[in-house]
Design goal:
DNA Polymerase III, Chain A, domain 2; 368 residues; 3 domains; alpha+beta; 25 strands; DNA_polIII_beta_N; 7 helices
Length: 368
């Protein structure tokens, strides 16, 4: 193989596909990325067997070929090269020569024969989405997935639920539900659960602009995201996801409208007193005119007031402040609506006008 390409484009591409390189493996080939110049274009591939990433770069292909190279050392070399064109050449012994300006590196490669192929995705289920919107949806929900050691593998991912003309992205950790939705054009309804690790990496790759489009394709075992010159394919999580709709469609007896920033800042300050103790909730006392937010621990006490509009009855309820703060920080609207019924039942934070986002949070029982 003998190719020449732009250093900055190469560094960006290597950084992207390295997100799918295994950090913990007994197979040296999984620590590699594949350089492939055999099909008239120069492609880079990373594949840890759960997730694979492929990106296509512009290059002058002087001689076709393919080789695997240790991702870590290759990435570090390319990043630190001068901002000039890079030449990559291989020989029959899988040695790699990298030249850029007056820099030259010789490093060993590996045969591409052992590098795992990406799964082929042939699906009738295909959606076209805005990259910017989907990027925001991940950011606005991913914090609610369950940790890897939760004992509930299905909840370490997010549900993509396509129904009724909407794509719903849903995360659940057993204490809260985060849901965002966007309109889609789809003839079929379906559900798949995507690993949180994969969505985290996809979030980093997606463009921020709403007018940049992506294609999403599903099969029974895999999902593929195609973004311009880059594609990501990942295994789906197996099992049945929580029936979240029942929780988000509960009947509530009371509703408040409140300024989002005022509420966020007040809870954030009150949480300073409870931050050292994971079991110390923030207490919310709601009446017709205001919400009183208090926190009392061995560190001291905090008191905050926030004006509100109330429909229904007031109450006193307590929550883990982290769950409120993480939801409020990703909401862009000036006002939020909070629905509740009693101090022992969950609340929902949502848009006052529509239901494009909903955050369902379980309360903490108050001690007498």
């Amino acid at each position: 193989m003998n190719i020449i390409c732009n250093k900055n484009q190469l560094a960006k591409g290597v950084g992207i596909v390295s997100r799918a390189v295994s950090g913990k493996t007994t197979l040296p080939i999984l620590e590699c990325i594949l350089l492939d110049a055999t099909s008239g274009e120069f492609t880079l591939i990373g594949n840890d067997l759960d997730m694979g990433i492929k990106t296509v770069l512009e290059a002058n292909i002087k001689e076709q070929g393919t080789i695997a190279v240790n991702a870590k050392i290759f990435n570090e070399i390319i990043r630190k090269l001068p901002d000039e064109d890079v030449s990559i050449e291989t020989d029959e012994r899988n040695n790699i020569t990298i030249r850029c300006a007056k820099s030259k590196f010789n490093i060993p490669g590996q045969s591409s024969a052992d590098f795992p192929e990406l799964p082929t995705i042939e699906s009738n289920h295909q959606l076209v989405l805005s990259q910017g919107i989907f990027k925001n949806m991940i950011h606005e929900t991913i914090f609610s997935i369950a940790p890897e050691d939760s004992g509930r593998p299905i909840l370490t991912g997010e549900l993509i639920d396509v129904r009724d003309g909407y794509l719903h992205l849903v995360a659940v950790d057993g204490f809260r539900i985060s849901m965002r939705r966007t309109e889609v054009n789809s003839e079929n309804d379906f559900k798949v659960t995507v690993p949180g690790k994969a969505l985290n990496e996809i979030h980093k790759i997606l463009a921020s602009e709403d007018d940049e489009l992506m294609t999403v394709s599903f099969t029974g075992k895999h999902i593929l995201f195609q973004m311009n010159e880059t594609l990501v394919v990942t295994r789906l999580l197996e099992g049945e996801f929580l029936q979240y709709q029942r929780n988000l469609s509960m009947d509530f007896t009371s509703k408040i409208r409140i300024n989002k920033k005022d509420l966020l800042d007040s809870i954030d300050r009150a949480a300073l007193i409870s931050r050292e103790s994971k079991n110390s909730p923030v207490r919310l006392e709601i009446d017709k005119e205001k919400m009183v937010i208090t926190s009392n621990t061995e560190l001291g006490s905090a008191y905050e007031e926030v004006p509100l509009q109330l429909e229904g009855e007031g109450l006193t309820i307590a929550f883990n402040p982290k769950y409120y703060l993480e939801a409020l920080r990703v909401i862009e609207e000036e006002e939020v609506c909070i629905l509740y019924s009693s101090s022992l039942t969950p609340c929902i934070i949502q848009d006052p006008e529509k239901e494009d986002y909903q955050y369902f949070i379980l309360p903490i029982r108050l001690h007498a």
